Amino acid sequence: MKNVEEQFSKDLLIKKPSNSVRAYSDPIPADLLIDIFSRVPAESIARFRCVSKFWGSILCRHDFTELFLTRSLTRPRLLFTFNVEDKLFIYSSPQPQNLELDHGDNYSLVATRYKDFPKHFTTKTRDDLSSGLVCLHGPGIERRRFACNPVTGEFTDLAKVKATHTRKTYVGYDPINKQFKVLFLAINGRHNHVVTFGNRKRRSTIECKRGHAGQYGQVCINGVLYYGAYFKESKSRVIVCFDFRFEKFSFIELDRDMHNVSLFNYKGKLGAYKFSNSYGQKLVLWVLEDAEKHKWSGSMCVLSHLYNEKIGDNYYIVGITSAGDIVFMPFGQLIPNFHLFFYNMERETCTRLDIEGFGEFGHHNFQVTTYLNFVENVTPL
């Protein structure tokens, strides 16, 4: 401990003017430094790690990255991705809460730019973003995949993992062991692989007794991945659960009316929704109350007149925030005039959110992809 404090003193040496006969150092306790750094913008952490070896060691410690993640979970963000001249750009802004209470019918935010990635990266598909990582890959089964942290700019080429015949890859975070993991899901869903990141990368083979196909949708809640699948043998649709901590599969049966649903995180529980008519004015919601008993609670939300007046049929649902806001985005929306609508189901309010910060791309013609509930995670890959 003494050596650490001496190194820290050297890093933060404060010197008086040259006419002073005395120079002194005043070391800051490591726990105080961790608390200070946990409050700075996430994109600054990568730079601060390069200031000195001591700062680098502090900012890679489990207690710091866990504290930063704990605070990030309380402030989820919007993530925006787009390609310009075959290059991937990722922007982010705070995800507003209680928009209509604080800002009325209209509000604007400025999106900030994250780290750049090489040109061969793509935004065709992605995984759930609640772990802080983005999994990017191109079309086809034998496609190249990258696990990327847009905050720190770190990425790893998943092609180095010899997991052939993989249909999909899912990125998750084990909140107990503080580890990033990637699930390589086989075409038939039976013979799968999991890679654990860290000082020593570990690979394991995970068998799933019930083969399944047609995987769709995904959301990760508290270290458990949920996605929809189809069982050919029983001709039924279920929700597949994969616990990243224990690396085990389980299954949740759907209610009879729960076909073609989309999954989302509803206040820490698994939620599902779908429109019940072609005009998109009735939204049916389900929340998983008991996974072991396959118990769902359901309700229907009839969208108010504000939906027709402000939103209409030219918008689609990006998702539902954990606070219960339905987020709508126009079809084929381009820069400029980039905006979203937040519709609160409980209060029946609708607020337009204008996103600024893309001025440098104003002369380009491209479409933005929007993701909800992104959590900044500075845990090293």
UniProtKB/TrEMBL annotation:
Classification via CDD domains: F-box_AtFBW1-like
Ranges of residues in domain F-box: 28-68
Alphabetical list of InterPro entries matching this protein: F-box-assoc_dom_typ3, F-box-assoc_interact_dom, F-box-like_dom_sf, F-box_dom
NCBIfam families documented for this protein: F_box_assoc_1 (TIGR01640)
Designated name of the protein: F-box protein At1g53360
Species of the source: Raphanus sativus (Radish)
Gene name as annotated: LOC108807548
